[in-house]
Amino acid sequence: MEIMVFFSLLLLVCSVSTNLTEADNEIVDQQISNQQPCQQDIHAVLREMAVSLAVQKAQIMILQKENQDHSTKLDRQTTEIDQLKQQLQDKQVAFSTSLLDRGTLDIGPFNTDTTLIFKQVFTNIGNAYNPHTGIFTAPVRGVYHFECHAYGYADIMTRVELFKNGERIFIILEFQPSHIWTSSNGASLLLEAGDHVFLRLSANARVRDSQGHHTTFSGHLLFTM
After folding, report:
1. How far does Cα 106 stand from its chain's mean position?
2. pLDDT for 86-132, tens place per residue?
3. H-type helices in the chain, by residue range?
4. Contact 141/193 with Cβ under 8 angstroms?
């Protein structure tokens, strides 16, 4: 483009030089001489623009890298927060239940030992107690405390046993031929995650519950290990 401009000027000078005075020729020569510095200035500006663009491109790449690093760090922090929330939820374990959800009913006696299913759930933080099976499953390793209160009457004994997996931990036993009673027991147990705790009514025994919720099963996590 610059060469074409130069040659155009040169042709113009040649075409009119025969008709120009000496003063006019000096003016034309001055304009041609002024054209060369202008072209040099354009080259300098273009070089400066190229350098500036290269610097800006490098800065943009650095900013993009920093932004990606910040995004990765934020994702990692979000994951850690979610994990801490889950751990905190796992440490919040407590349940309280009653044998019946309505009415008054005798459970037993049966010919064999029978797992008691406590249907009325007052509290089940952590959902570790299953109201369909009567079994509590430890969500984390730790020390848990359990309590049971059993209601009985008349001439059939009340005998309820608390089991950790297949191991019997304690017994609630009461028998009075002509009276009513409420007996209780409790224990603190070290459980591994996945251990089961439940209550079993012994064979030939009976337990009663009513709208007063006399027969209950409760437990909660004391601390993790």
Report:
1. 44
2. 555 557 999 999 999 888 999 999 999 999 999 999 999 999 999 99
3. 2-16, 22-90
4. yes
Residue 194 vs residues 60, 128, 220: alpha-carbon distances, Å: 53, 10, 15
CA 35 to chain centre: 71
Q: State how far the Cα of 221 lies from the Cα of 140, in Å rounded to an integer.
A: 9
CB atoms within 10 A of CB 72: 10
DSSP annotation string for 96-133: EEES-SSS-EEE---SS-EE----EEEEEETS-EETTT
Residues 6+ apart with CB under 8 A from 109: 156, 203, 204, 205, 206
pLDDT digits (tens, 9 = 90+) for 193-224: 999 999 999 999 999 999 889 999 999 999 99
CA separation for the pair 152, 215 (Å, rounded) = 9
Contact present, 130 and 163 (Cβ < 8 Å): no
Question: Which pTM was predicted?
Answer: 0.62
Measured between alpha carbons, how far is 215 from 183 in angstroms, rounded to an integer?
Answer: 9
Strands 216-224 and 158-164: unpaired
Peptide bond into 37 cis (omega under 30): no
Beta pairing, strands 207-209 & 120-125:
unpaired
